[in-house]
Amino acid sequence: MKSFKKDIIILSKIVKMRDTNKEDIKPVSASELPPEFKKFDKPFGLEQHEFNRIFIGYITQTCLLISYFYFIPFGIISPWFIVINGIYGYIGGLGITVGCHRYWTHKTFKANKALQVLMMLMQTISMQYPIFKWCRDHRVHHKYTDTDADPHSAKRGFWFSHITWLFLPKHPEVEDKLKIIDISDLARDPIVRFQSKYYWELFTVLFYILPMLVNQWASPELTLLQNFIIQHARYGTSLHFTFLVNSLAHMWGDKPYDKEISSSENALVSLLAVGEGWHNYHHTFPWDYKAAEFGYKINVSTMFIHFFAMIGWAYDLKTVSHKLLVDRINRTGDGSHPLFNHAHAHDKTPISKDEKHSETSLPTWGWGDKALSKDDVVITETLFTSKRRG
């Protein structure tokens, strides 16, 4: 209890701190990871895939089926429950798309401490493991897409990339790359560490207790078991929407920015996954805060970031310049983009040393990746460079 109070005091001080905007980060090896990170290698003493099989597989998928094929068709629950829990699930989804994905994984923008805490709490609602674990897996996915080192490689089939990768032991290549991927920024992030230390306590309150109390208030006749099933149905629905980014968006759609990679532009996925379906663009330019070329086009996550940028909580939003965009469309695109010009595509203009390096080396996972070419860094634009950081 004393330790928890101490951590709460530290966290409150962090929220009040002004962001110093320093980038003094040194690499951290797997053996040097904070102890609060390591406990998730075996949640509750189980291997990760065993815990996933029970919690996500048996429990959640069963509750999902009961809810959609019994509760809803037979009027066991009110349609309002679908709306209320859908909104709550959407909040958790934004915690993933904006917080875990665009902020912590790809470092596409900066946020003051209050926004970081808000995104951390929203991410906890989603129950997709702590921030550090989600980000570590996703950086490996970007760095080694469609290889044996990709945690959910689309080359292994739709269902594997969609969900069954969670139920199987990790490929040895994945295990190796997880040990060397750079997460030094996360290891030194006090909010990420706080979440990891108290993850299961935060999860219990935000995933179960809070929404179940709201449901019970709205419908006192609801039984505890029914309430439990509804929570897992919400969870299962949000998971399948999220996982479409790993499966559907790596298999179907246009590739206007890079025809050599599996990720594709998929409007349906963007609609269901809060703006994350413009995936060919995202894998080509993972450091763009929009994760898409067009700002508000089926992209609620971008709207969320813009709102907080306008009130000064988000700033230094990284975005791809028009020149870099057009050059890449014409050099590697599949010709489906309106800006594609066949004459320009065959232009023999010399490619700089940094451009050659970026096209022949491993892909980058985002703005903090040292493999990102200097040309790309220089030509990237920064929006909302406000000094208001809270």
UniProtKB/TrEMBL annotation:
Keyword Ribonucleoprotein recorded: no
Q: Does the keyword Acyltransferase apply?
A: no
The prosthetic group or cofactor this protein requires is: Fe(2+)
Sorted alphabetically, the keyword list is:
Fatty acid biosynthesis, Fatty acid metabolism, Iron, Lipid biosynthesis, Lipid metabolism, Membrane, Oxidoreductase, Transmembrane, Transmembrane helix
Residue ranges constituting the Fatty acid desaturase domain according to the UniProt record: 87-286
Where does it reside? Membrane
**What does its UniProt record remark on the domains?**
The histidine box domains are involved in binding the catalytic metal ions.
Name of the protein in question: Fatty acid desaturase domain-containing protein
Q: Which organism is it from?
A: Orchesella dallaii
